[in-house]
């Protein structure tokens, strides 16, 4: 078992973090598993819910997710208790995963005719009895019913943004969905955290995108950027997070630092509602 030195403050109540961006390949899964691992290595109890039929978060955490494994599909569609599908993550004490199997690909359609279709995940998390400090929900790259279930279940939206051209494209749609869910289904919901990923400090483009995101969003953007790192991209093929695969690498240290910011913000900052109206539209998203 790995254990990092020192511990971080633990939240008084479970923080449910929805990692979302309907743009594909921006680092949602990588961010989910590495933030979750960082917090668990610092003493927190953390559950990762894999809500993507691709099952990438399950793979990255070394969790078996072939078709017969009890999974989040059974929870959402069959009403199976979450506790019956959760598995401990090997090597990291305090880290758990509710895996996704390929069945979940059908759930988007099947949910349409299920009772209380938007709040199935909320109900499952609410009746989970084990104590947890954090729940991280890894969303698929879409804004369908799976992502809506995550937005109804969580209070905090974490948006990874890849530092490349078109980075902000589509973000307006995500923000509007957050507003809609907040208005109708979940008044607590807010964008708490924006994380710049795959940052390559040598390119002008990356720093331009970073400046643009920072000037638009301000305090929600973490100070730590996640660098582009080969070690980060290699880790999943070993069923590991970068925290255990190469603990001293820049990728590992940056996720630890981002996790520290999140843990400290949860304790020290009063949540300020996002003020999209005052900020004007996100460029390139209208
Ligand atoms: P999807 O929308 O398909 O779910 P995603 O948003 O979850 O994708 P990831 O799967 O986390 O994105 O990342 C996309 C690819 O980029 C993966 O191959 C991942 O290993 C790689 N990657 C993510 N972050 C980094 C990084 N900081 N440095 C290098 N490669 C990275
Ligand atoms: Mg993913």
Polypeptide structure, described:
The chain has 286 residues and is α/β, with parallel strands linked by helices. The chain has one domain: P-loop containing nucleotide triphosphate hydrolases (Rossmann fold), CATH 3.40.50.300. It has helices at 28-41, 56-60, 72-78, 104-110, 120-126, 145-153, 171-184, 204-217, 230-234, 242-245, 250-268, 276-279, and strands at 15-19, 46-50, 87-88, 95-98, 134-138, 156-162, 190-197. It has a seven-stranded mixed sheet, sandwiched between helices. A hairpin with a 6-residue loop joins strand 3 and strand 4 (95-98). Helix 1 packs across helix 11 and helix 5 runs parallel beside helix 6. It is globular, with a radius of gyration of 18 Å. The model is unreliable at 269-286 (pLDDT under 50). Adenosine-5'-triphosphate (ATP) binds at residues 24-30, 52, 54, 56, 141, 197-198, 226, 228-229, 232-233, 236, 251.
Question: Helix and strand layout, with pairings?
Answer:
Blueprint: E1 15-19, H1 28-41, E2 46-50, H2 56-60, H3 72-78, E3 87-88, E4 95-98, H4 104-110, H5 120-126, E5 134-138, H6 145-153, E6 156-162, H7 171-184, E7 190-197, H8 204-217, H9 230-234, H10 242-245, H11 250-268, H12 276-279
Parallel strand pairs: 1-5, 1-6, 2-4, 2-5, 6-7
Antiparallel strand pairs: 3-4
Helix pairs in contact: 1-11, 5-6
The structure holds adenosine-5'-triphosphate (ATP) and magnesium ion.
Adenosine-5'-triphosphate binds next to helix 1 and helix 9.
Give a short synopsis of this structure.
The protein is an alpha/beta fold and 286 residues long. It is built from twelve helices and seven strands.
């Amino acid at each position: 078992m790995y254990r990092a030195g020192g511990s971080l403050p633990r939240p008084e109540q479970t923080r449910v973090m929805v990692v979302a961006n309907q743009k594909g390949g921006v680092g949602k899964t990588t961010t989910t598993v590495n933030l979750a691992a960082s917090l668990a290595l610092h003493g927190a109890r953390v559950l990762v819910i894999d809500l993507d039929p691709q099952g990438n978060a399950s793979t990255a955490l070394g969790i078996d997710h072939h078709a017969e494994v009890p999974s989040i599909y059974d929870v959402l569609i069959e009403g199976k208790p979450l506790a019956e599908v959760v598995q401990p993550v090997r090597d990291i004490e305090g880290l758990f995963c509710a895996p996704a199997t390929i069945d979940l690909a059908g759930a988007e359609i099947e949910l349409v005719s299920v009772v209380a279709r938007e709040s199935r995940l909320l109900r499952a998390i609410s009746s989970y009895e084990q104590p947890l400090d954090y729940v991280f929900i890894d969303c698929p790259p879409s804004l369908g019913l799976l992502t809506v279930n995550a937005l109804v279940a969580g209070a905090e939206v974490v948006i990874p943004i890849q530092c490349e051209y078109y980075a902000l494209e589509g973000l307006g749609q995500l923000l509007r969905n957050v507003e809609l869910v907040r208005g109708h289904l979940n008044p607590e919901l807010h964008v708490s955290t924006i994380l710049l990923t795959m940052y390559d400090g040598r390119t002008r483009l990356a720093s331009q995108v970073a400046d643009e995101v920072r000037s638009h969003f301000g305090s929600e953007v973490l100070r730590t950027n996640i660098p582009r790192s080969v070690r980060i991209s290699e880790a999943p093929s070993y069923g590991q997070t970068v925290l255990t695969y190469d603990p001293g690498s820049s990728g590992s240290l940056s996720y630890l630092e981002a996790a520290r910011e999140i843990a400290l913000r949860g304790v020290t900052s009063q949540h300020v509602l996002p003020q999209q109206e005052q900020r004007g539209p996100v460029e390139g998203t209208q």
